[in-house]
Write a structure and sequence with these properties.
19 helices; disordered C terminus; 5-stranded mixed β-sheet; globular; 616 residues; Metal_Hydrolase; hydrolase
């Protein structure tokens, strides 16, 4: 067979133990047709075969995120200012100030997760006063993890919160001495107040949502991601909020493979939700680009144990088991797999009681059901999951919240959160993902760095050496291991003959770069089914055209997505706040904060590592 494409001169990490280090690969009809010696593969070259020399770069299978809110995230990506990866609060606020200047009414400046205060040199969040100074007229909504949201005065007016607005169940509108809202919203411990407030903001027009989703997919391609399992989400109703992704699929504009889960939307009506949906679609319905995966991650509202490690573990309702059983029985009887959000072992313990009860009547051990998160799971419950044929999808939430966990439970308790090696030794399928875009960044390399180094993004070492993954183990969790969770084993996740030709050519060698450089990797060439979906550097001209982000004021157009510490990103931020050269007002360069890992001393914002140009 004459291949469509041959890739030469790459260091291929195939993850195929029988063929770990080939010289070249050939691709035909969207699949790997040959993986082996360059001489043999070049002998099959035809007149229409394209040949790409990879210049000795590391090549990996396309990354698979087993837990990302891609569909909801795509609808909003173009109107969200990303603080993911920004190393100082000063630079983050400079970005916010610039964005506020160009965002027209009635739109907001939204920073919707993906960051933590611990990543900043200043080791803190902005104050409400600082946000008001940076954006006196444009509504600003800043979501920090699952614990809080910061709103400026303009945003409080936009959402209509006054001294007469009551606190919702499980949430708090912080007030001043006169009872007026300050702009701080707290999840205590229910995050619904945060998301319900965010939902009050304007939406993009349908054609802009299509553009936004395409840009979010391309951003993930830039980072080497080729497949995603969508975990549903609040305010993401089926089928209404799936119209955009359906259109992109129909029009052949998907640059990611997406398997989606259906997330219940109505408290008290969960059974009705799943009864209706399982009559509309069947598990695995669709094709290799877009398909139904199952139910969850929310099955019943009473089982939701939001992780906010600043707060004590929430006690679930006494009636949770009965509500969960009704849903799980329905799903098991209709052969519809599920996933369940569960942070704490106590939640997992109670859920397993239900799963075991259902299993006695309707076996579930072939369904590929699984728990998400499982940071504090015990050995006993790992073994119970193994016996029931379940899996565990882990995410790098501890990279963003590890400091809070240690503060509440101690460093010893944090040493295996989650205990991945114990899960693997028990024979439980384990896969990795991000849980982006709100509670963590969508950047897979931040997750891979966390798995390998055991460090938070703030630099705290959580895990001792025995609890950390070697690089190939971590890569397997992000590739072939994740195929179990979408029931696609053998179809993708490795570079081998017959597998879907999804791969990423990296900016640096993941297997040899310094540990602290792992989080800064990206892809310079990404292929989906043998087609180029992203190119950078030497491969820029090979990348397919993408319309510019819309609307014109989009933060993506001004700043892009994930903000790395590279010089190009420093230039964007420094230009945006008007001090591309040394700041004459405060006498320093942005680059000091950009390049430094050293936290400032004291609590004063106008420090040697910060820049107050946004407030001038």
């Amino acid at each position: 067979m004459q291949p469509d494409l041959i890739l030469l001169n790459g260091k291929f990490a195939t993850l195929d133990r029988a063929n770990p280090n080939p010289e070249a690969v050939a691709i035909a009809d969207g699949k790997f047709s040959a993986v082996g010696d360059a001489k043999d593969i070049m002998a099959t070259k035809g007149p229409k075969t394209e040949v790409i020399d990879l210049g000795g770069r590391r090549v990996i299978p396309g990354l698979i995120d087993s837990h990302l809110h891609i569909i909801r995230g795509g609808l909003n990506y173009n109107m969200e200012l990303r603080w993911d990866g920004v190393p100082s609060l000063a630079d983050a606020m400079a970005m916010l100030k610039r964005q506020a200047e160009v965002t027209p009414p009635p739109h907001w400046v939204r920073v919707v997760g993906g960051f933590t205060e611990h990543q900043f040199a200043e080791k803190r969040l902005p104050t409400i006063a600082e946000i008001n100074a940076a954006a006196p007229d444009t509504p600003v909504f800043i979501l920090h993890l699952y614990d809080r949201a910061l709103l400026n005065a303009a945003a409080l007016r936009a959402v209509g919160y006054t001294k007469d607005t009551p606190n919702p169940p499980g949430g708090e509108i912080q007030r001043d001495a006169q009872g007026n809202p300050t702009g701080l919203l707290l999840a205590k411990p229910n995050a619904m107040i945060l998301y319900a407030t965010l939902a009050k903001g304007p939406k993009l027009a349908p054609e802009q949502q299509i553009n936004s989703t395409r840009h979010f997919m391309r951003e993930l391609n830039r980072l080497g991601v080729t497949s995603v399992i969508d975990a549903g989400g609040g305010f993401q109703n089926y089928p209404d909020d799936y119209d955009v992704i359906e259109k992109l699929h129909k029009n052949g504009e998907m640059t990611l493979r997406i398997a989606y889960n259906l997330f219940t939307q109505k408290k008290g009506e969960e059974v009705q939700d799943f009864d209706r949906w399982t009559k509309m679609v069947k598990a695995d319905q669709g094709d290799d680009l877009y398909r139904v995966n199952g139910a969850g991650e929310m099955l019943v509202f009473s089982a939701a144990d939001f992780e906010d490690f600043r707060e004590a573990r929430p006690d679930l309702d006494a009636g949770m088991e009965g509500e969960l059983e009704r849903v799980v029985r329905l799903l098991a009887e209709r052969n519809f797999p599920w996933r369940l959000h569960a942070t704490y072992n106590e939640t997992i313990d109670r859920a397993l009681d239900v799963f075991e009860k259902v299993h006695r009547d309707t076996p579930i051990d072939k369904l590929h059901w699984f728990f998400d998160h499982a940071e504090t799971i015990t050995d006993r419950n790992i073994d119970r999951i193994a016996k029931l044929g379940g899996g565990i999808a882990v995410q790098h939430r501890m990279a963003f919240q590890g400091e809070y966990f240690v503060e509440r439970y101690g460093a010893k308790a944090a040493e295996a959160t989650p205990p991945i090696k114990r899960m693997l030794s028990a024979g439980v399928p384990v896969g990795a993902g991000t849980d982006a875009t709100r509670v963590a960044s969508y950047n897979p390399w931040v997750s891979l760095a966390w798995l390998v180094t055991g460090k938070t993004v703030g630099g705290l070492r959580l895990y001792p050496t025995p609890n950390r993954m070697d690089r190939l183990e971590a890569l397997r969790l992000w590739t072939e291991a994740n195929t179990w969770f979408s029931r696609e084993q053998g179809k993708k996740g490795r570079i081998e003959v017959g597998a879907l030709a999804d791969l990423a050519v990296l900016s640096g060698d993941f297997l040899t770069v310094a540990e602290d450089d792992i989080a800064h990797l990206s892809s310079v060439l990404t292929l989906l089914g043998g087609k180029i979906v992203h190119g950078a550097g030497d491969f820029t001209k090979l990348a397919p055209a993408l319309p510019p982000p819309t609307p014109d004021w989009s933060p993506v157009k001004l700043f892009g997505g994930y903000q790395d510490r590279a010089q190009t990103q420093f230039q964007k931020v420094s230009v945006s706040c008007g001090c591309a050269n040394s700041c004459n007002v405060h006498g320093h360069a942005h680059a000091k904060a950009w390049a430094s890992d050293v936290p400032v001393s004291g609590n004063e914002f106008w420090s040697a590592l910060g820049c107050g140009c946004w407030a001038v």
